[in-house]
């Protein structure tokens, strides 16, 4: 929590425009005198900081839930094709609407941004409902995992066809959306996004006990009274909603959901979700703030795509932590 506060302050202070510390404090309390600096803080840096915190926490929790329910260390938020479904919804808005109507909805300013967000949520929720329906009829986790991967491939195939048939400008707009960014959320959208995530993240903690039982295996969990299909459906539903909302507002953010649960396990040396759930939230928020800070570092014109930073920064850190953990286990 202390690291998150420090990184949040750094995100407010550091950027292509230098704003003194005292002036930043005055702006935050409503006593700022420089209108340009005030706009930079309230219209850019503060929304990006809050968005990175809740989006990083949501993706990390979603990854932890997927890895638990499938008992697979390579499972992540996009493993069931939910992110691909979100991308497919956006592809219909950005690519197909321009092909049919002559003007893509993505070029219509605020209306276009709202259409993209709605399409991303609809696409993700549609795939998630399909996965939940399949999960009630498929007993094996591996089968469900394979079906989810196939759904993702199918969505990517449809997106590829739409790209081939679309104008170059629309394809570029879709590719830019696919790179992910914490900077496209501002104003009322940011407030709604933060409120939704602040409701969903505490609700996800209610699944701690079923997730701990799922770690024991289906047979032991069933003997302890857990309804396996219902618990699996609830965990998948919670994870899917988190991914859908984050992807709708920020685009597909890679790596955080896959890597942060491993980082949390390595730091806290436990598999107890009573500890892992809040630890994963905080680690995910911290890593997202680090990536957002690097993407906006002075010297870069504008901001780098978040997906260009997440793996570049996080992969060496995660690898170092896991190698150190493995070395400690061998020495013991």
Provide structural commentary.
This protein has 332 residues and is an all-alpha fold. Helices cover 76% and strands 0% of the residues. The chain has 14 helices and no strands. Helix 12 packs across helix 13 (273-295). It is globular and about 65 Å long.
Shape: globular
Largest sheet: none
Any idea what the radius of gyration is?
Answer: 21 Å
Mean pLDDT value: 82
Count of DSSP-assigned helices: 14
Q: How many beta-strand runs?
A: 0
- Could you give the distance between the termini? 30 Å
In short:
The chain is an all-alpha fold and about 325 residues long.
Topology:
Blueprint: H1 2-13, H2 21-28, H3 35-70, H4 82-101, H5 110-135, H6 141-165, H7 168-178, H8 187-204, H9 208-214, H10 218-223, H11 228-250, H12 256-268, H13 273-295, H14 307-331
Helix pairs in contact: 1-3, 1-13, 3-8, 3-11, 3-12, 3-13, 4-5, 4-6, 4-7, 4-11, 5-6, 5-11, 8-11, 12-13, 12-14, 13-14
Notable traits:
332 residues; mainly alpha; 76% helix
